[in-house]
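Hi U.,

Before I forget, here's the chain from the pilot set. I'm dumping it here mostly so it's searchable later in email.
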Amino acid sequence: MPSYDCSVLYRHENEELAHLPEGPVVCGKNRFSWVAIQHGLASTVGSLNIFDLSSNQNHTYPLDGRPGFAFPCAEDDTFVVGLEHRVGVFNTQSGRWTELCNSIDAGVECTIINDGIAFSRGLIFGSKTLDRNQKKAGLCFLRVSDLQLFQLRSDQLCSNGKVILEEGEQVRFLDIDTPTKKVVEYTLEISSGTLSGPRTVLNLERFDDFPDGMIATPDGQSVIIAFYNPHDAPHGEVRQFCLADGSQEAVWKTPLSPRATCPLLIENGGEVKLIVTTAVEDMPVEGQAQSPNAGCLFMGDTPFDSVPEQSRIRIGTAI
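Structure:
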């Protein structure tokens, strides 16, 4: 099984950005965006960030809440962002926020929007419980054709990695509710905004760490999952699994940074690289001393010669 050692791509000058980086997404040539969900343990705000591989520069755009995801829109400088209990379009140049919906997990206490995925017909995103002990976080579908919001589930703990596999009119949806340590598959019915019953495609209970962010390989036959390790460890791991039989096919390691959160495949210098976000979240002071790369952005080699196709989302007339 191939094993790749990632190297530090970027060490944040501002330690607030190292707390909980997630959700890297390609947003232009040699550029990817990511979200700093929370600027520190007690903070209730975060930011959208854009990293330029050609200059090795990171640009930060503060937000007035904690973002769970951000995806580039069809128009330049605009992103659809999940923020606390609302979804809107944010313009990085003007700072303008255009609200799309503001009732995520309405009536449910101690949840905020977390990971999501954008595809041609909408957004699927989930929430996480901040008290970590009740299955009450939602899973939602926002249909772009009419901006209608559908509640898909209301019993998750920490909704994380998501993959969409479109096969003609059929939409297969892979999802991770992190504490379950399983990847489950649904069929999404676009017209009714409903899911089929879940089918477990990967059982990851054998691992001590927890599955977090997830992407598909370019051929759609496998998934690459970042694993969040809450324990002391010499490195973090991102693992590739075959969807057909569940076998592990590759591993990427993030040295001195055990809390890997999300992966991304991106073209850089004519090669396909793996970007990995990592976090400091919940790491005690002594743990940070043992893991000085915690919170850094990493980059590693891959065997791929292409990246999965990603289209910029177009949301009604809001943008």
